[in-house]
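Chain particulars:
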Amino acid sequence: MADAEDLKSSGDFSSCGFDSHPGHHRSFTLFSVNEVGRRKGFMQRTFPALGIFFLLIGAAACSLLLFSPSGVPSHQSAAPSPTYLGFDLNAYPGDDALPILRKTFSFGGYWLSAPPGVKQNNWIEKRQRMLSQKFGFLLLYNGPQSNELKSPVQSGKRATADAAKAATAAKKEGFPLHAIIFLDIEEGGRLPANYHAYLRAWVDGLARAGYRAGVYCSGMPVNEGKGVTIVTADDIRNNLGKRNIAYFVYNDSCQPSPGCVVSHNPPPPSASGVPYAAVWQFAQSPRRKEFSARCAATYNRDGNCYAPGDTAHAWFLDLNSATSPDPSSGRDKGP
């Protein structure tokens, strides 16, 4: 499968750790030979055993520098966390598509409500099909538009009801408790106060139902004028108080996005410009021309992004990277 593998750094241990791997240098306080052996002649004549003593001390020092208590070379930093490639699309691609998509992707989006712009959700009862192919999950629930939220009180009530519906749908589909459900927020820029009231009630409502909250939102800076910019993810984070949620951000601007590029080592979510993101949507179908002009050649000529095995171009996809092969923790504990 195309799951990302751990990337491990390596170093040359022949110099007692001083020739460390590029980018992972330690600083050492070193004493010159003159300082240590300032009275070299006197030492050789009077204390010949001290030469052996200093050799032993030096060997012990090298051992301490090279190896941590766990036996791992201490000058070698931990391997970076692997990243995993996933997809999402509004319409279920069909049972026959799953084995083809699994050759490339570790996880897939899964709608618990009707996706934006449609009235029907054809992902219902597809969880077992996804599990049979060992997919991870990215659980999605369609959020409201700002103009639907009239006041903080009404927004809170709406969010509480939506959280209950999302939790009920997740349970009915067989998703375990504590799975993360991402609220789909299509609007970018700074959100109004009513939306923040909604989000706080959404997080609290899911928590009462035994699930965890996440948001799908913009990770792209918006110019508000007079030198002020805002990123929706930051705006949400700054208005949640002490509540912790997971962030699935979109930023399809080239750069940082590589465009419609399928890779065994996709860029990490932190490269999106939102360092705390858990998932990054770096390519959208159809591509947004105003943001993706620099990487237009990576998309199909029709402007969409397709899986390598989709020779018929049947499923136009959004591409995502994540720090987990199961970003919503939607699998059973066993598989």
The mean pLDDT is 82. The CA atoms of residues 220 and 251 lie 6 Å apart. Strands lie at 84-88, 107-111, 136-142, 180-184, 212-218, 221-225, 228-231, 246-250, 279-283, 318-322. The chain has two domains: 13-66, 84-322.
